[in-house]
Give the backbone structure.
Amino acid sequence: MTTVTQEAGAPFGAAPPPADGAGESAIVTEGLTKRFRGGQVAVNALDLAVPRGSVFGFLGPNGSGKTTTIRMLLGLVTPTAGTHSVLGLPATQALPRVGALVEGPAFYPYLSGTANLLRFDAADPTAPRTTARRRVAEALERVGLSAAAGKRYRNYSLGMRQRLAIAAALLGPRELLILDEPTNGLDPQGTREVRALVKEIAADGTTVFVSSHLLAEVEQMCTHAAIMRTGTLVAQGTIASLSGGLATRVRIETPDTADAARVLGTFGLADVRSEAGQVTAELGGHAPERINAALVEEGVAVRGLAVLRPSLEDVFVGLTGEGFDVDG
Amino acid sequence: MSTVDTSTSPGAGSGVRAGEARRTPGLVPVAETLETTERHARPETPTPPVPSARERWAFWRLLGSELGLTFRRPRNLAMLAVIACVPVIIGVTLRIVGGQGGMGGIIADVAGNSLMLTFFALSFLVLLMMPVAVTVVAGDSVAGEAGAGTLRYLLAAPAGRTRLLLVKYLNAAIYAYAVTAVVALSALLTGLVLFPAGPVTLLSGTTITMAEGLLRILIAVGYVGAGMAALAAIGLALSTFTEVSIGAIAGTIVLVIVCQVLRAIPELDSITPYLLPTWFTNFDAVLRAPVDFGALREGLVAFGAYIALFGSIAWARFSGKDITS
């Protein structure tokens, strides 16, 4: 363990220099690799760059190495090879400024919500005791658990447990939140609440690194994303740039597929595909309403016209040639 | 704005040139503006990030939190309560048996003086009951947190591995002393209620005052507590190897029982000095006149060796362990 001494007078969580030597990245990994005993490679040569201020979605099916990566970032698991830095520091030194939720909540069942949070606050050597009660109350307030603060954790519902875990991640002034599957086990209402909370936290300038196996969730919450598959990074970038790799398509529902395909061809649309009852093509820069007008003019019976923007799922399928294991 | 900055910034050569340039109103050389902009930006150049400062009493706060968990946990309190009952039961039994008269030896000794019950209770409980209680807390210390998943959150807090292990050990050692003290206190109170108070007759036949008797009880508690703390080191070491606390607890208790069995085999006399439980009962040295400090010292050295050995094993294992629970 690295013992770090600094001017004693520095306030808790004093705003660090705005950026770091490594640029604007909250997390940087280079060649990060974890091979567990028994030879199984959980994470393979991962080069991740999480920009400061982003909401970064870490996507991948279960078992793709997301949690192992997070455990390495938090110093719980020692990498076999490669380096990583968090907030420009060696990971263990940055941890007081990092809030984390790893693989679901874990608390002492016989303690109340407040007592549980005080326990984890006591474990952080940089957290001042004098403000502990206030910070715990604020964190509970923020996740809407104030009313259940004195209740034993044993009697919490699954959603309350998850929220308590998020409260624990918000105990101090954090610059980075690492949330591993934050909506796991939550009902739709709880899921929406978590999403709103993440947006709110991100709006304060905190970088949020959120892992998920749910594509739609990442698409809704995140500004950036990385896609993992069997321990390997497949792609990373802004959501827009990831989706931008695929073309927007137009889909015309019509019984006259042959005519429709011909009209689309005259517009110069690429990759025209006719299927039963519908024709699709890359939209390019064309205005869909012009296409519709042309189709009607040519007497094609248009039952529906849709512009298909590529989703992350399409990106994923495009990159890996595989479907996404959503359940499990 | 930038020109004001340059005029006030001392020393730099460009500052002087900027000053000259300003004498020609409206004519600011492009190169000059670039330079001043650069210099204006310089204070914002990021310095290397620094780790957060540590709070001064952080270690003791964590130890306090740990003790709070241990001494508020119903299971641990129940063990203390059960252990407190045993001297009472022994005392009442001896009182009944002793009342019938005609009993010699140790029973007569205990029945004859209020303080002797304390030594008797310690020598009886130190064989198994006290080790079990201490082992439950020590064996659970790391494995219990790992099994519940709280270990990952403690380490991500970040508690620090060496720091957490030290806190865990101190906590177990303090519980070991609490167990010893509870036995002594319970036996002392029971003895004072049931048996006559007064000067104590030692094993060697010498008589000491009651005050000195109490002092010797204190020495015995210090010694037995150290022995229990040595056992706690074994429990802690085993605890770092598993995520199932019952495994670490059972392993340590089996170790104690095996040691007791080995001690009972006369042919194995040569190895008994290396077995930890051999030294537990050495506290009877305080019943000699004068106190056999040599025997106590030997025992304490053995305890120290066990603490150093198993403390190192625990540290070696825990500091490099992958926390996957």
Chain A has two domains: 25-243, 247-309. Residues 1-22 of chain A have pLDDT under 50 and may be disordered. The first helix of chain A runs from residue 66 to 73.
